[in-house]
Please model this.
Amino acid sequence: MIQLLYNGSSSACFEIANNNPYYAPEEYTVLLNGAEACKGDSNVFSLFGLAPDTEYTAEVCMSGNTEKISFRTASESSCVNVKDFGAAGDGIKEDTSAIQAAINFLPENGRLYFPEGTYLTLPLSLKSHMTLELSENAVLLGSTDRERYPVIPAFAVDPVTGKEIPLASFEGNEVGCYQSLIEAAYAQDIAIVGKGRIDGNGQNGDWWKDYMNFPASRPRAVFLNRCSNVTLHGVTVANSPSWHIHPFFSKQISVLNCFITAPKVSPNTDAIDPESCDGMNIIGCRFSVGDDCVAIKSGKFEMAMKYRTPADHHVIRNCLMDFGHGALTLGSELSAGIRNVEVTKCLFRGTDRGLRIKTRRGRGKDSVITNVLFDNIRMEKVLTPIVINMWYNCCDPDRYTEYVWSREHLPVDERTPHLGTFTFRNMECTEAQVAACYIDGLPESPIDRVEFENISVTFAEECAPGIPAMQNFAQNRCRTGLYLDNVKEISLKNVRVSGAEGEALQAAHYENISTEGFETL
Model:
């Protein structure tokens, strides 16, 4: 069965149904109206260079079998070449004014087309009802001149009503930020598509150097502030000054068959960080970055209490995480809560942690995580496959205080976080090193319940010690099995741990534990 995920005026994205994480059972050939269009080996594939408002039939040929799907591309009002506005695309002349003029004058429901070339630019602002298409070998390259990036205030104040208009945020706080390379605010119906590249050029400027002393927070490659119905399809997003794609208080956002990449050593270059969003789809994407691959957030305490907007209805499916601190992370800025998250059919390779949940005292009583499913996940050479850490000690001024690190049973108040039930099932994890899982709750707010079902973890033959969770006074561990502390209910069903040193199950401060089919080798 083939599912149509996205149908634009010049491109379309499809998903092949099977139970394999990320990769299809074998390589396949795609025919478009009877002619070979491409070959593929992943469960999600794309077609580009399509004509608007046109009927097509795609066929996927695999193992002698053929499946067909017919579709009609979307209509558009017009297509405009950015070079008609004077963009040089030579990587030398700055093209900011030409590109922004082309965006401003593009008719509604129009497509702005970038032919092959390198378009050096300062930040750009998108508008509603438009498509930006980067053709193959077209690169939007961020300028390294930080002094020319506008600084966007956290909010503006309406002089008539006194109402605040939220404009900028980073790491869960409303703060002034340098304008992001591609930015849209209070806009809808936007598509960024194509086989081209959005390159923040972080490695060639000073964005990754001494950034804690900048007068404003670093920009992202793509920032969507209170937008709706936005799709990124096919593009590569690379080398962002900080996070790559940051949807913020937005609805119905899709990132499909994209590649997000930055060097392992690049600081805080998360791939996709949806914050207080509703309806986030991340499907068929590939990641290799310097921090978390996907981090779902809902703000720190002050901002969360101001807007009370949880992260809701997130789907992450058929993705490949090649490197990152965490492949799929919830938090740590989750003070408004996270609910209805489905992570399925993903492949994690070489990340520090696989499924990672992080919070800490100070996030607040509304930072509740509910209805979260992790299913059909394969991990290869992930140092610690599962981490739930309620002692996270990064990105806050009080990170080293006793309030954060004390192991005493502190009073429960409005700033005490709470974690509910987590289910991990149908997971195969090979060549782990540090721990099979590391779950560490708060004594005054233990995690309600953790369920493992059909889980297999094996350790690599040669393992190096490491720290499973970022917390104060963390201990190096190596070949630790299942470590759980301050979890009320623990359920293990058909769980196998191979190669652990010491006790394969280390549990403390729990109320009930069940081990049905728990096996150690």
Summary: The radius of gyration is 23 Å. The longest strand covers residues 447-459.
